[in-house]
Structure formats: structure tokens, C-alpha cells
């Protein structure tokens, strides 16, 4: 991932994750940099569900539940 793209992604996520402890934010950033395709896929699925009428929070919860096993595998 390019440095500029990575910087803006970090800034956007920091805004979304403002209540998450900084150590957890760093873990998430590291996972995203290591596996950008996985997170891109999740983002696209959430976006599709939001366009279909679900709230962003509900869509995110459903998609993360569907990919929970893969997410846990990646975070080890």
C-alpha cells in the first residue's frame, strides 16, 4: 500500500475508532497493512449492505460475524 494512501486510511480509521485504545488501533492498522485485500472485501460487503438499506453499524456487525473465523486467524 502506498505511503500516502496508508496515511489517509490511518487518519480515517482513527476518526472512526476514537474510543478504541491506541494499542488496539495499532493492531488493527498492522492487520490492515498486512492483509489489505481482506479488509477491502469487508468494506465492499458493508457498503453493499448499507446501500440495500441496513444501517452501517448493523451491516458491519453482520459482515464481521460472517468473517469472524478468518479475522481471528489473521490476528494471531
Could you walk me through the main structural features you see in this protein, from its secondary elements to its overall organization?
- The chain has 76 residues and is mainly α.
- It has one domain (3-74).
- It has helices at 3-16, 22-34, 36-51, 56-66, 68-74.
- Helix 3 crosses helix 4.
- The longest helix has 16 residues, at 36-51.
- The protein is globular, with a radius of gyration of 13 Å.
- The two termini are 21 Å apart.
- The model has no long low-confidence stretch (mean pLDDT 86).
Shape: globular
Instruction: Report the sheet-strand fraction.
Output: under 5%
Give the mean pLDDT: 86
The strand count comes to 0
Helix content: over 70%
Structural class: mainly alpha
Q: What's the structural domain tally? A: 1
**How far is it from the N-terminal to the C-terminal residue, by CA?**
21 Å
Topology pattern, helix = H, strand = E? HHHHH
The Cα radius of gyration reads 13 Å
Largest sheet: none
Low-confidence stretches: none
Q: How many helical stretches?
A: 5
In short:
This protein has 76 residues and is an all-alpha fold. The chain has helices spanning 3-16, 22-34, 36-51, 56-66, 68-74.
Strand and helix map with partners:
Blueprint: H1 3-16, H2 22-34, H3 36-51, H4 56-66, H5 68-74
Helix pairs in contact: 2-3, 3-4
Key terms for this structure?
single chain; 76 residues; mainly alpha; 5 helices; 0% strand; globular
Amino acid at each position: 500500500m502506498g505511503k500516502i494512501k496508508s496515511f489517509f486510511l490511518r487518519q480515517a480509521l482513527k476518526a472512526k475508532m476514537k474510543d478504541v485504545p491506541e494499542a488496539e488501533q495499532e493492531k488493527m492498522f498492522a492487520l490492515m497493512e498486512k492483509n489489505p485485500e481482506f479488509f477491502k472485501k469487508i468494506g465492499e460487503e458493508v457498503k453493499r449492505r448499507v446501500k440495500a438499506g441496513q444501517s452501517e453499524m448493523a451491516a458491519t456487525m453482520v459482515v464481521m460475524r460472517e468473517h469472524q473465523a478468518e479475522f481471528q486467524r489473521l490476528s494471531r
